[in-house]
């Protein structure tokens, strides 16, 4: 918004043409909004007794230490993210709108889930089936619309290789449109998968949001490079018109995450709830599709992948063998059962997330 209002004035306002400037401002804006708004929000949630419902089958320490902590902190985080993005991004570019739509839609699903939990005083909330239905419908509308209107193509770009590009629409000349729509299904799958992966990771104070900050920061770099024709050509990564504006969204997410982490750091004063976790998963899943880095996301978001895979393996092992691989899943609970303190687990997972981000960025020159 500010780009359109102030850039025409010229002079010192020419700085608004630079994505790097607006990205930094977006991060500081969302950080300031969250830092200022959370104390009042936490106090109001405590007064209304909108508290996290702790599952009885979880670690005993959680029942002792986390009962009574307010939830739904993702509401403020999403507010800061949305407002900051709309203030600093170019509103004539479709990609920030598309990513923000997925984010807020997944957040709305999480909000319904959290609301049911606190109102019914139960950890059940919205059934998993309806969550997935909502996420799939979100993907159908956003990705289907984007593909139908030519805002994205059906190409896969392999990391580590310069010219490894696979265009689904050209694999079978007899039915290019049908095969192209398979890429829409791929995008839907990613939104569902990443929403639930982040949700599974959100089990310890600051764990999910810390990994989100490193992931979003990495994707800010990738989005900026993808949207710059010279940089993308030099580094042999796909050029995506308007992708640079997604970098503004990414750093707005970093700022909102830092503002939330200030109050979510151990011991947490508030939890993000599904409204935050599902929204973050939808955000990183959708932006990876739009900037053509969905395969690299598996490396950047390796902590989320590890958490989701641990649950999948645990379920499959118990179903087919009657035995469990981990003492408890997701895997962060396994380490709790081994006697690791919560802060130690969180910081070590942050370190892993940071290292994976550095490895992912290094692949920009390994092509």
Account of the 3D structure:
By secondary structure, this protein is mainly α. It has one domain. The protein contains 15 helices and two strands. The chain has a two-stranded antiparallel ribbon. Helix 2 (19-47) packs antiparallel against helix 4 and helix 11 packs across helix 12 (294-300). 49% of the residues are buried. The mean pLDDT is 91.
Strand composition percent: under 5%
How many angstroms does the end-to-end distance come to? 37 Å
Helix-strand topology string: HHHHHHEEHHHHHHHHH
Helicity, as a percent range: 55-70%
Lateral strand order in the biggest sheet: 1-2
**Average residue pLDDT:** 91
SSE blueprint:
Elements: H1 2-6, H2 19-47, H3 60-65, H4 74-88, H5 94-120, H6 128-148, E1 155-157, E2 165-167, H7 176-201, H8 207-226, H9 229-235, H10 244-264, H11 273-290, H12 294-300, H13 302-321, H14 331-337, H15 342-362
Antiparallel strand pairs: 1-2
Helix pairs in contact: 2-4, 2-10, 4-5, 4-10, 4-11, 5-6, 5-10, 5-11, 6-7, 7-11, 7-13, 8-10, 8-11, 8-15, 11-12, 12-15
Which features does this protein show?
single chain, 367 residues, two-stranded antiparallel ribbon, 15 helices
């Amino acid at each position: 918004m500010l780009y359109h209002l102030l850039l025409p004035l010229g002079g010192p306002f020419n700085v608004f043409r630079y994505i790097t400037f607006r990205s930094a401002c977006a991060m500081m804006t969302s950080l300031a909004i969250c830092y200022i708004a959370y104390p009042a929000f936490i106090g109001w949630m405590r007064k209304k007794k909108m508290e996290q419902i702790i599952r009885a089958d979880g670690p005993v320490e959680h029942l002792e230490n986390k009962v009574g902590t307010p939830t739904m902190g993702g509401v403020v985080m999403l507010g800061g993210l949305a407002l900051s993005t709309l203030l600093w991004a170019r509103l004539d570019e479709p990609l920030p709108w598309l990513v923000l739509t997925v984010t807020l839609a997944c957040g709305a699903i999480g909000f319904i889930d959290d609301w049911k939990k606190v109102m019914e005083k139960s950890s059940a909330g919205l059934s998993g089936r309806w969550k997935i239905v909502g996420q799939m419908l979100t993907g159908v509308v956003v990705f289907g619309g984007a593909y139908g209107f030519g805002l994205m193509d059906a190409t896969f770009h392999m990391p580590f290789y310069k010219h490894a590009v696979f265009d689904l629409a050209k694999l079978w000349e007899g039915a290019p449109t049908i095969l192209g729509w398979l890429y829409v299904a791929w995008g839907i799958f990613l939104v569902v998968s990443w929403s639930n992966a982040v949700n599974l990771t959100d089990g310890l104070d600051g764990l999910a949001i810390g990994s989100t900050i490193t992931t979003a920061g990495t994707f800010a770099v990738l989005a900026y490079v993808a949207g710059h024709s010279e940089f993308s050509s030099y580094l042999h990564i796909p050029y995506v018109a308007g992708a640079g504006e997604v970098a503004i969204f990414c750093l707005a997410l970093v700022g909102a995450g830092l503002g939330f982490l200030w109050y979510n750091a151990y011991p947490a004063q508030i939890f993000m709830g599904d409204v935050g976790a599902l929204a973050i998963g939808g955000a990183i899943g959708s932006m990876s599709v739009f900037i053509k880095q969905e395969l690299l996301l598996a490396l950047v978001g390796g902590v989320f992948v590890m958490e989701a895979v641990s649950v999948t393996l645990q379920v499959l092992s118990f179903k087919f063998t009657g035995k469990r691989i981990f003492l408890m899943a997701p895997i962060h609970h396994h380490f709790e059962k081994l006697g690791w303190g919560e802060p130690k687990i969180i910081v070590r997972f942050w370190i892993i997330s940071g290292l994976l981000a550095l490895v992912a960025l290094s692949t920009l020159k390994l092509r």
